[in-house]
Structure prediction request, 121 residues.
Amino acid sequence: MGVFIPKRCNLCGGAVIYAPSSYVYGGHEIGTFVYVCRRCGAYVGTHRNNPKCALGILADNEMRELRKRCHELFDGRWSNGRERTEAYAWLAGQMELEKCHFAWMDKEQLKRAVEILERTA
Prediction:
């Protein structure tokens, strides 16, 4: 996919700024950067080894909670990189997506992933 640098919020269309992680973590610096929507406050972190590249799409509180729930249900399904890839491929098939990763899912896709993962737990 290359480097993803959001300019507009995928949730509200607001302008996005690039800031140190302390901007969203209450002054607590974790050594990375974030992209933050100036209008709604949605944000996404960046890769440690490529701090300009967003880890996914911006997320509000509900989306972050849905992502956590997806990982709670999903992460026990794999134990190594190959199994992880296969598990994501299985989920993509269940969701009728070409490929998937929770960081790139919108709110409705995350809700659907939770439904599928709860049903198949």
The chain has two domains: 1-58, 61-119. The chain has a mean pLDDT of 93.
